[in-house]
Design brief:
- By secondary structure, the protein is mainly β.
- Helix 2 (405-418) crosses helix 3 and helix 4 runs parallel beside helix 5.
- Bound molecules: beta-D-galactopyranose.
- Beta-D-galactopyranose binds at residues 494-495, 530, 548, 575, 578, 619, 622, 644, 652, 668.
Length: 887
C-alpha cells in the first residue's frame, strides 16, 4: 500500500479460518468425510481453585518491567518458557529458545495424579470476578474503576483429556481464545508455555507432551494482577478453549489470507495465501487447491462450489513452514459484503500429499471494497456511508467477561435497531465470536490492540510487558482477524501517552504500523487520539486519523485543524460524546443548548448517584450527542464517529468512581448494563435511521412533587417538525432547526395526565409518541426476548420484567423488590436492573426494579427439553409467570 501522498486509500476485502469435516466431490459438492483436522471444544468439566498450593519451589510470577522497559529480556524463570510461544508472531531476529528442563515440575497442582476432587467443578467460559461479592466502597481493593469486583488473584484450572491411541502421529494443539491473564499451561506435569496478555488468543503445541491412549491432565495457572486495568477486565479462562488435531502437514494457525482486487458487481479476483507447516521428519511435497462456496447463515459452505482454483505445489522443509501464494481466481457476479447486505463466502482449501488429503481448511470471507477518502468520507463498494459507530468494552454486564454468543448477538441486535453500523473493540482484541457476528449481521469493526504502550495508566497494566510482547500481540490480532469482511480499521492503541512524545512516540507508532501492514497491507492503521496535535509526528504516522472528543469539543474543536494539517488523510471521531445518564432519572433545571460539563449541580443527583437522562451532561473532556452531530454535519469530510459507549460496562462509574462512592458500572452507555435503552438511544436512532418513522418523548410523566413547576419536554424524532400536546392542548408546533437534533419545549408546566407528540416529515404526519401519568404499581409483567432456546447449556433467554399499574403502564419510578424463580429444565444465570449503584451480586434471584424494570437471564440445562417457567413475585403486587421452551 502507498503510505503517503495519496488522496484516497482503496482497501479491498477479506476473511477467517475454521475447520471442516467436509470434502469435495469431483463436481465440487460437499460430502462429509473423516477430516484429518478436528476442532474440539473442551469447555466442559474443568476443576477450579483460587490461589497457589502452600509451597512453591519456583517463582511463578511473570516479570514486568517499568515504563515499557524490560532489560535484559528474561532468560530464566517462567518468562523464559513462555516467550518462545510467540515465536511464530515475531521477526526472525526476535526469536526465543525454549530452555532445557521443566519449570515448576515439583508443583503439586501440575502433577497428573494430583487429587483435584475437592476443587470446584465448572464449565468454561468462566469469569470468577463476576461471582463477586462486590467489595464494599471504602474497603481495600474496592476499586470503582474495575467495578468493585474481585477479578484479581491467582487461579488454577485442571482438566482430564482422553486422548485416543489413534492420535499417535497427529499434531495436537491447545487453542485458547482468551484467558485473564499471565497464563501458564502444564500438560502431564510439563510446562508447555503460556501467554501474558489476557485479551490475546494463543496456541500451544501439546504434541511433544501428550500421551495417546491414556489420561492426560492439563493444569493452567492464571495470575491476574490488581490495578491492571481502567475497566473491569474479568478473571479466569473467560473465552472458549479448543483442541485442534491435525496431520503433521497442515495449514498453520490462522494460516490463510484472502484478498480481492478488481471488485465490481460483475467480477472479483481473489488471491489466497496459504501457510503450511510440516512437523514430519522429511520434507513434504504438497499440492493445494481451493473451492469457493456461498456461506449459509451460520457461515458454513452451502450448495455446489462456485469457483475453483488451479493446483499449486510447494515443498515444505522438515520442521518448517512455507507460505504459498496460490493462483488467483475470478468470481463472476459476486455478492458483495456491506453492512446493509452482509453476504459471505467460504473458501475450502484442500492440502494433499502423495495423493492423500492431509488437511481441509475453511476460510469464511466476504468481498467488498472500502475507500477512506479525506474529502468524501468512507464508502463501501462505492456507496458512501458514515461510521455510525459505538465503542464497547468486552464485558456482557451481569454475565461479566465470560463470552456468550447469544449475549453478544443480543447486543448487536439492539445496536442494529438503533441504526448503529460499526463497533470499536475498545481497547483490546475482542472475542472471535464478536467478529463472526459482525460479519454476519453487518457491522464494520475498528479492531484495537492496546490501551497503553510504554507508559502506564495503572500500575500493573500492559506497559509492564510492552517491551517484549507488543510485536506478538499486534501480529496476533491482525493474523487472526484479517479475513473478516467486517474489520475495516486496525487500531494500534487508545489515548496512548506517546501521542505527546514527538518523534520518539511516533517511532513506536511506526514500528507497530509496520507489523500490522506486514500482516495485512490492505487496511489502514489508526489510533484514538485525545491529545495529539494537528501536524504532530504521531498523527503523521497514522494512515487515517481518529480523534477522541477533541474534534468537536467547544470552544476549540480540532477537526478543522487536523483536516488542514493532513489534507490527504481520512478523519473521523474515534471516541465521541461520553455523555452520562441513568435510565429514567431526570434532574432540574435542565441545561440549555448543546449541554454542559456535569457537576456543580448540573445533571447530577449526588444523593442517589444518578445522572440526568436529558442527555446534556458530560465530563470535562467530553461532549453531548448534539455537539458531535453538529460538528460532523458542518464538516462533510468527517467520516463518522464511535460513541463512548454503546452499552454501559462494569467499572469506570464516572463521576462516582471515588473510594466512598457506591457505583459499580458506567453511566456512559446509550443502553444500560441490563440492555435496556436509555433515552439517548432514540437521539441516535433519529439521526442514524432517518427513514425509520419514530418519535420519542422525555421525561416520564410521574411528577407529583412538580405540579405547577416547569418540567421541560424534549423530543427525539427522525421527522423535521413536531407538535406537543399536554392533556389534549397543543403546546405549539416546532421545527427542528439546522444543527438541532432535538425539539425542546422548555417551559412546559407540569400537570398529571398525558403528554403526546405528533412528528411530521416534509409536512406529512410521520410518527407519534405519548406518555401518561400512571397509577400506583399493582402488577408485574414478564417478556422473554426469545421464547424458544437451545438446550446446549449456552443459549440464553433475556426476560424483561416490568412493574406496571392496573392499566398495564410501566411505573417509571418503581424500585419494587422482585424475586425471580426458575423451574423446569432451566436455570437462572443472573439478574440485573441497569442501576449503576446496585451492589447486589448478579447471580442473586432477588433484584430491585430500577425505574420500573429488571432483567432475568435464563439458560436451559444441557441436553434437557421442555418448558422452563420463570416466575416473578413482589410483596403487594400481582405475581406473574412466563415460559421459555427448550429443545
Ligand atoms: C476516554 C477513554 C475511555 C474512557 C472514556 C470515558 O478518554 O479513552 O477509555 O475512559 O474516556 O469518558
Amino acid at each position: 500500500m502507498k503510505r503517503s501522498g495519496r488522496s484516497a486509500i482503496d482497501f479491498s476485502p477479506l476473511l477467517v479460518a475454521a475447520c471442516v469435516t467436509m470434502a469435495l466431490t469431483q463436481t465440487g459438492a460437499l460430502m462429509a468425510i473423516d477430516s484429518p483436522r478436528e476442532r474440539i471444544s473442551i469447555d466442559d468439566d474443568w476443576r477450579f481453585t483460587k490461589g497457589d498450593p502452600p509451597t512453591l519451589a519456583e517463582n511463578l510470577d511473570y516479570p514486568r518491567g517499568r515504563r515499557g522497559k524490560m532489560t535484559p529480556v528474561p532468560t530464566t524463570g517462567i518468562a523464559a518458557w513462555i516467550l518462545p510461544v510467540g515465536n511464530a508472531l515475531n521477526d526472525a531476529d526476535h526469536q526465543f529458545a525454549r530452555p532445557a528442563g521443566n519449570y515448576g515440575a515439583a508443583i503439586s497442582f501440575v502433577q497428573t495424579d494430583f487429587d483435584d476432587s475437592g476443587w470446584r467443578q465448572l464449565d468454561l467460559p468462566h469469569d470468577f470476578g463476576i461471582e463477586g461479592p462486590f467489595i464494599p466502597p471504602g474497603k481495600a481493593d474496592s476499586d470503582g474503576a474495575t467495578g468493585r469486583l474481585p477479578y484479581f488473584g491467582i487461579a488454577w484450572y485442571r482438566k482430564h483429556l482422553a486422548i485416543p491411541n489413534s492420535d499417535k502421529g497427529r499434531q495436537v494443539y491447545l487453542d485458547v481464545d482468551g484467558s485473564m491473564a499471565y497464563t501458564a499451561v502444564w500438560l502431564n506435569g510439563t510446562l508447555v508455555g503460556g501467554w501474558p496478555y489476557g485479551y490475546s488468543s494463543f496456541r500451544l503445541d501439546l504434541t511433544p507432551y501428550i500421551k495417546p491412549g491414556g489420561d492426560n491432565v492439563l493444569a493452567i495457572r492464571l495470575d491476574n494482577p490488581p490495578n491492571s486495568s481502567r475497566w473491569y477486565p474479568g478473571g479466569g479462562i473467560y473465552r472458549n478453549v479448543w483442541l485442534t488435531k491435525t496431520a503433521p502437514v497442515h495449514v498453520s494457525q490462522w494460516g490463510t489470507y484472502i484478498t480481492t482486487s478488481g471488485v465490481s458487481p460483475t467480477s472479483a479476483t481473489l488471491k489466497l495465501q496459504v501457510s503450511v507447516d510440516n512437523h514430519a521428519k522429511a520434507a513434504a511435497a504438497v499440492s493445494l487447491s481451493t473451492k469457493i462456496f456461498a456461506a449459509d447463515s451460520e457461515g458454513k459452505p452451502k450448495g455446489a462450489a462456485i469457483a475453483t482454483s488451479g493446483h499449486d505445489t510447494a515443498l515444505i522443509p522438515a520442521g518448517g513452514r512455507a507460505k504459498v501464494d496460490c493462483k488467483g481466481f475470478t468470481l463472476v457476479n459476486p455478492k458483495l459484503w456491506s453492512p446493509k447486505s452482509p453476504n459471505r463466502y467460504v473458501a475450502v482449501t484442500t492440502v494433499t500429499q502423495n495423493g492423500n488429503v492431509v488437511d481441509l481448511y475453511e476460510t469464511p470471507f466476504g468481498i467488498r471494497t472500502v475507500k477512506f477518502d479525506p474529502n468524501e468520507g468512507l464508502s463501501i463498494n462505492g456507496e458512501r456511508l458514515k461510521l455510525n459507530g459505538v465503542c464497547d468494552h468486552h464485558d456482557l454486564g451481569a454475565l461479566g467477561a465470560a463470552v456468550n454468543y447469544r449475549a453478544l448477538q443480543r447486543q448487536l441486535e439492539i445496536l442494529h435497531s438503533m441504526g448503529c453500523n460499526a463497533i470499536r473493540t475498545s481497547h483490546n482484541p475482542p472475542a472471535p465470536e464478536l467478529l463472526e457476528l459482525a460479519d454476519r449481521l453487518g457491522f464494520m469493526v475498528m479492531d484495537e490492540t492496546f490501551d497503553t504502550w510504554r507508559g502506564s495508566k495503572r500500575p500493573n497494566d500492559y506497559s509492564g510487558i510492552f517491551a517484549t510482547w507488543h510485536e506478538q500481540d499486534t501480529r496476533m490480532l491482525v493474523r487472526r482477524d484479517r479475513n473478516h469482511p467486517s474489520v475495516v480499521l486496525w487500531s494500534i492503541g487508545n489515548e496512548i501517552g506517546e501521542q505527546g512524545q514527538g518523534q520518539d512516540g511516533a517511532r513506536v507508532a511506526i514500528e507497530l504500523g509496520k507489523y500490522v501492514h506486514e500482516e495485512d497491507p490492505t487496511r489502514p492503521i489508526t489510533t484514538a487520539m485525545n491529545s495529539a496535535r494537528a501536524g504532530s509526528p504521531f498523527a503523521a504516522a497514522m494512515d487515517v486519523l481518529g480523534l477522541n472528543y477533541q474534534g468537536s469539543r467547544l470552544p476549540n474543536p480540532q477537526y478543522g485543524n487536523f483536516h488542514q494539517s493532513f489534507p490527504d488523510k481520512f478523519l473521523y471521531g474515534s471516541e465521541t460524546a461520553s455523555t452520562i445518564s441513568s435510565r429514567g432519572e431526570y434532574t432540574f433545571p435542565v441545561a440549555n443548548g448543546y449541554g454542559v460539563i456535569s457537576g456543580r449541580g448540573a445533571g447530577q443527583d449526588n444523593a442517589n448517584h444518578q445522572m440526568s437522562s436529558y442527555d446534556l451532561y458530560f465530563p470535562s473532556w467530553a461532549t453531548s450527542p448534539d455537539m458531535e452531530f453538529a460538528a460532523q454535519d458542518r464538516l462533510a469530510y468527517v467520516g463518522g464517529e464511535f460513541v463512548w459507549t454503546g452499552f454501559d460496562y462494569l467499572g469506570e462509574p464516572t463521576p462516582w468512581g471515588g473510594g466512598k462512592d457506591p457505583s459499580r458500572s458506567s453511566y456512559f452507555g446509550i443502553i444500560d448494563l441490563a440492555g435496556f435503552p436509555k433515552d439517548r438511544f432514540y437521539i441516535y436512532q433519529a439521526k442514524w435511521r432517518p427513514e425509520f418513522p419514530m418519535a420519542h418523548l422525555l421525561p416520564h410523566w410521574n411528577w407529583p412533587e412538580r405540579v405547577g413547576q416547569v418540567t421541560p419536554v424534549h423530543v427525539y424524532t427522525s421527522g423535521d417538525e413536531a407538535e406537543l400536546f399536554l392533556n389534549g392542548k397543543s403546546l405549539g408546533k416546532k421545527k427542528k432547526e439546522k444543527f438541532q437534533y432535538r425539539i425542546r419545549w422548555d417551559d412546559v408546566v407540569y400537570e398529571p395526565g398525558e403528554v403526546k407528540v405528533v412528528a411530521y416529515k416534509d409536512g406529512k404526519q410521520w410518527a407519534t409518541d405519548s406518555i401518561k401519568t400512571t397509577g400506583p404499581a399493582t402488577q408485574l409483567q414478564l417478556k422473554p426476548d426469545r421464547d424458544v432456546i437451545a438446550g446446549d447449556g449456552h443459549d440464553l433467554s433475556f426476560v424483561t420484567l416490568t412493574v406496571a399499574d392496573k392499566d398495564g403502564l410501566m411505573v417509571p419510578r418503581s424500585k419494587s423488590p422482585i424475586h425471580f424463580d426458575v423451574t423446569g429444565p432451566g436455570t437462572l444465570v443472573a439478574t440485573d436492573n441497569g442501576d449503576a449503584t446496585d451492589l447486589n451480586i448478579f447471580s442473586s434471584p432477588d433484584r430491585r426494579a430500577f425505574n420500573g424494570m429488571a432483567l432475568a437471564i435464563v439458560k436451559a440445562k444441557r441436553g434437557q427439553s421442555g418448558a422452563i417457567t420463570i416466575t416473578a413475585t413482589s410483596d403487594g403486587l400481582t405475581a406473574t409467570k412466563t415460559t421459555v421452551a427448550t429443545k
